Amino acid sequence: MIRAGIVGGTGYTGVELLRLLLPHPEVEVAVITSRAEAGQRVDAHFPNLRGYGDLCYTPPDLAELDTLDVVFFATPHGVAMDHAPGLLAKGVRVIDLGADFRLADAGLFARWYGMAHRAPEALAEARYGLPEYYRKQVGEARLVANPGCYPTAVILGFAPLLAEGLLEDGGLIADCKSGVSGAGRAARVDLIFPEVADSVNAYGVSGHRHRPEIEAVLSDIRGSGLELQFTPHLMPMIRGIHATLYGQLRRPLSDAALQDLFARRYAGEPFVDVMPFGSHPATRSVRGANVCRIALHQPRPGRVVILSVIDNLVKGAAGQAVQNMNRMFSLPEEMGLAHIALLP
């Protein structure tokens, strides 16, 4: 049995992770931390968890975390980097759902997150946790950087074409929409219901922290550098990411050839669903499930449009973290993740 701990268990990502881990047949959640809620039962704050144990929040205790097999950090950036080196030294594996280890370049991290990276040796050891493209590395890792939610949807959509060198360098566009849970659980005036309902707005158009992550990973998959325009939007919904991706083909491909490329690349991938050509996947079709649904369009010859949808809290965060944990401990990748999406 894997003894796991969650640092930062009161946010949406942390409690979603707990929801997935509690029924996992090979996991015992031994610790869940929160300074503000220490001593209080978790199910008093999240009643959907009633009947699944009697866990209480505890203050972060390094001595207690040192005794675990794996520790998940569902914390803001800057937290995991301070604790990961000590945990690794004790033989504890670490999965960071924040941003501390996603950018391999410490200078790039400092530029986009406004702080120096305080654990450069751990950063050098970290592996990017997108199993569909880094399965072997994740399986051998002690420290995994769980991808961002937007990057997961964008990378899974663009990667098959880029890996084959089929997209022109210019004109790569990722036009993305997210539910408000992606902004976290902290109280903010701009995220309360009267502010977000009946409205859509773009943000981070001139530069968003997920852009360098997307560019770095897609550059690695393609084998050479690239740039793209990434524009996120806030939608009046709780969960979900919809990525509409645009690219220009280097050479003509038929609709059938495009479909076959994606079908072959993701054949056997338990959490990527390549839909029939011309489909329109909806975010509601992945709500609560660890799956990315992808559909292809070619509105005019050579112009490809890829639609990619995920649940930002599951495949975009907690579900992918469990998928990575399964790989790290040589368990079946689907274990604890066979959830059918919720409808309506």
From TrEMBL:
It is found in: Cytoplasm. It catalyses: N-acetyl-L-glutamate 5-semialdehyde + phosphate + NADP(+) = N-acetyl-L-glutamyl 5-phosphate + NADPH + H(+). PANTHER family: N-ACETYL-GAMMA-GLUTAMYL-PHOSPHATE REDUCTASE, CHLOROPLASTIC-RELATED, N-ACETYL-GAMMA-GLUTAMYL-PHOSPHATE REDUCTASE, CHLOROPLASTIC-RELATED-RELATED. Belongs to the NAGSA dehydrogenase family. Type 1 subfamily. The active site is at C149. Its EC number is 1.2.1.38. GO terms for cellular component: cytoplasm. Pathway: Amino-acid biosynthesis; L-arginine biosynthesis; N(2)-acetyl-L-ornithine from L-glutamate: step 3/4. InterPro entries: AGPR (IPR050085), AGPR_AS (IPR023013), AGPR_dimerisation_dom (IPR058924), AGPR_type-1 (IPR000706), NAD(P)-bd_dom_sf (IPR036291), Semialdehyde_DH_NAD-bd (IPR000534). One of its GO terms (biological process) is L-arginine biosynthetic process. Catalyzes the NADPH-dependent reduction of N-acetyl-5-glutamyl phosphate to yield N-acetyl-L-glutamate 5-semialdehyde. Keywords: Amino-acid biosynthesis, Arginine biosynthesis, Cytoplasm, NADP, Oxidoreductase. The lineage of its organism: Bacteria, Pseudomonadati, Pseudomonadota, Acidithiobacillia, Acidithiobacillales. GO terms for molecular function: N-acetyl-gamma-glutamyl-phosphate reductase activity; NAD binding; NADP+ binding. The keyword Amino-acid biosynthesis applies. Residues 3-141 form the Semialdehyde dehydrogenase NAD-binding domain. The keyword Amino-acid biosynthesis applies. This is N-acetyl-gamma-glutamyl-phosphate reductase. It holds the Pfam family Semialdhyde_dh.
